[in-house]
Amino acid sequence: MAPRRARQSRASEPALKIIALFLTSSDSRWWFILLNVPMLILCPIAKLDEAEAEEAAEPLRKEWYVSGFLLRSYPIGGSLKVGGDKIPDTTFDGAMGGGLKIGVFPSVKSVFGGEVELSGHGGSITAPHTLVGNRGRSAQLDRTQFNFMVNALARYPGDSIQPYAGIGLGFSVLDLDGQTESSAGILEPDGFAGFALQGIVGIRLLVTNHFFGFVEYKPMLFTGKEGDRCRVCTRYSCRQLPNCTTPPLHSLNVQSHCVAVGVGFRF
Predict the structure, then answer these.
(1) CB atoms within 10 A of CB 172
(2) Count helices and strands in the chain by DSSP H and E runs
(3) Which of 16, 122, 184, 222 could be 248's S-S partner, Cβ–Cβ 3.0 to 4.6 Å?
(4) Is 53 helix (H, G, I), strand (E, B) or coil?
(5) Torsion sign over Cα 26, 30, 31, 35
(6) 99-109: b or e for each residue (b if 16 or more CB lie within 10 Å)?
(7) How far is the C-alpha of 170 from the C-alpha of 151, rounded, in Å?
């Protein structure tokens, strides 16, 4: 048995000499690279952890933020009138949209804050042809709606999860493309402007000290009236155009559920 072990030991000597020569050769530094690969991987990770620690050690004093979001509207009801004549069985279709928000809290631990919101979405307004007396009623309109809101918010200022609620007041501008049929005949409505009110319930997830994502639900109410094409207003006064007859004006009320998903940056 001893001679066999000796032969095996002598057989392995050339391989050991080759490995030793490779590791000590001045022309071969692959061993140095291989030994440092783990360090090359771990050092950037350590730097990121160190940066996150420094960022967390210096929290934001006053919290300003900018965010963008995608929006889906789900109308639940409303009414469309022409000169006080209601068009029956009017339905409102939802649509995708989006918006931007700029907000502020006095500090990262503040409960109350505010934001300005600009959003927009599309949709359609339809009503089947219905006879009322001897006159038909119907609607086929495509709408584009822009909302400008000022929101007051209250939140729980958690370190990673922040539920919040609020209320928003503002105005909306609608552009309508299509026509309606009512007791006033067939008309093509002009642009709308009106009052908007919304509630806000949401939750925000802080990914880092600066970046966050959020989801919110917003019930919204719009009520407005078509602009008078025969009345021109400037900054200081309004006047009626000569030889212009105002047609029956459209009025609109819409209640909607809205769901928004977005991301933002705090600074």
Answers:
(1) 23
(2) 2, 14
(3) 184
(4) helix
(5) positive
(6) bebebebeebe
(7) 9
